[in-house]
Amino acid sequence: MRKSLMLLLSLIFIASALLAGCGSSGNGGNQAPANEGQGTANNGNAGTGTETSNEPFEITIRHTQVGESKKFRLAMLEDVVKQTEAAVPGLTVKLDAVDSEVNRKEKLRGEMAAGKPPEIFDVFGSPDAELYAKEGLMLDLTPIIEELGIKDKFTTLDPFTHDGKVYGLPIGGSIEGFFYNKEYFEQKGLQVPKTLGELEQIAEKIKADGKIPFAQASKDAWIPLMTTNNLWSYYAGPEITYGFKTGATKWTDESMVKAIAKHQEWVQKDYYKKGELGFEYADMRNQIITGEAMMMMDGSWANSVFRDPEQAGDMVGKIGYFNMPPLNEGDPVIVMQDANNGYGFSSAVAEDPRKLAAVKEFIKNMWTEEMQLRGLKEDGVLPAMKMDLEQMKTASDDPLMQDIFKGVSEIGTSFPAFDALVQADVNTALSMGIQQIIGEEIKPEQMLENVQAAQDAANAVE
């Protein structure tokens, strides 16, 4: 068994232990088997329609559209499923909903290690899809997207590409920045900050007013790491993250220490609500919806919550958005921008012409300009397929969406999220480390030494 598959097995135990500590659990699945190490050279017959039997058959789609905040995306998926079932004789699609973190860090890893992923599944492109593709567990989509004429219509397929072949498709794009209570800012005479120092001045004024400067929930470490990742991209430069996996750069770099120290400083200055390590993602959004907190670092996808009266109530129309500002006024604005989350497909599908036809039909229905625009209008998800910025602006006249479009236009340098550039066990070490930083159990220097040790170990086995 190859090293990467052994890594998968070890990650299951690590992730299971972490998730158990958070009270999370996955539920079992009964998906079609895949042969371990199965190649995909026979994928060229994708969608040829060689099987015309009307006998019933089933495929499973593992998705993560769970909860009120993802209801619009779920509705889109359900519509695509209906289209696909209607076009493929005998097909029934089973939707398997699993929390995103549970799917990524526990359930899908276990299924991949056993060689039995669902036919279609939510997956991160880098590094997850690459690891699974190396083991022959993911379907090569190259011939399908070439036949459908969409291969060159994506903003990027890099996260899902391995050895020149495409093994997944991004469902949407995103940027990360601050949502803020626009009404409160206007009442207090506050302006969108142009520097990080101005952002801190605003935080001090909000705290002095008896409010929480930044909404935050850190039970799942990826949430506070949005702030950390953006901070170190300013202090150390976004290019530093690209070098961790190659050994060209080190987590222990002095600029990285400054970035982590800044995050810990914000915790120590009470810019976040006490007890954030116990708060769930939804709790963070509720802090700003209820007026308890005035700003919140999150992905652009969160706009759908603040535009929905059922979720945001009276706060609809009162929330704005701005990018994290640079250290110095006039410096380029550096923003996390990527398209790393999407769907992958089991390589075992290639063995069944009817399932292969179903997969092709699903792709044909899901990745269209119509669906991309619908995702933008209804769910506020930036397109993963190429679209002119002016066309995006016309898709929604909502003020919050216009703020996000403005944020996109201001980007001087963009970078992918850190977890697209480092190995999974490094991500685990970083996640543990930032929670220790927030809990003030460790100093930035020691935290980064621990992460670098995990990085060295991960690099040694590749």
TrEMBL record:
Ranges for region Disordered: 28-56
Record keywords: Signal, Transport
Compositional bias per record (Low complexity), positions renumbered to this chain: 34-55
Leader peptide range in chain numbering: 1-20
Pfam families with a match to the protein in the record: SBP_bac_1 (PF01547)
Source taxon at top rank: Bacteria
Tagged with keyword Signal: yes
Record bears the keyword Ion transport: no
Family: Belongs to the bacterial solute-binding protein 1 family.
Protein name according to UniProt: Extracellular solute-binding protein
Organism of derivation: Paenibacillus oralis
Organism ancestry: Bacteria, Bacillati, Bacillota, Bacilli, Bacillales
